[in-house]
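During the second half of the funding period, the structural biology subgroup turned its attention to how the target accommodates small molecules. The most pressing case was zinc ion, which had performed well in the primary screen but for which no bound structure existed. We therefore specified the complex as follows and requested a full 3D prediction, including the ligand pose.
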Amino acid sequence: MTETKEQQGCPYCHEPFKNLLVEPGIAEYITLTGNIYSLTTEIANFGFTNFPLSYCPCCGRKLGDHD
Ligand SMILES: [Zn+2]
């Protein structure tokens, strides 16, 4: 699959990952562990939740396997 220029330059799904959301007490951003992309939500006084991602929620780029 060919990536568009927008997808290649997307700051949210490339390191260093830019925050998707920052609000008082909440931050949301993409993390990469090995070959697995996850959406991490960090909540103050609660902790982290991780949700596996197949596509970038911002640019729609396919994440994970490189075919
Ligand atoms: Zn992206």
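Two results from this model are relevant to the next phase. Helices lie at 5-8. The beta strands are 21-23, 26-33, 36-43, 47-52.
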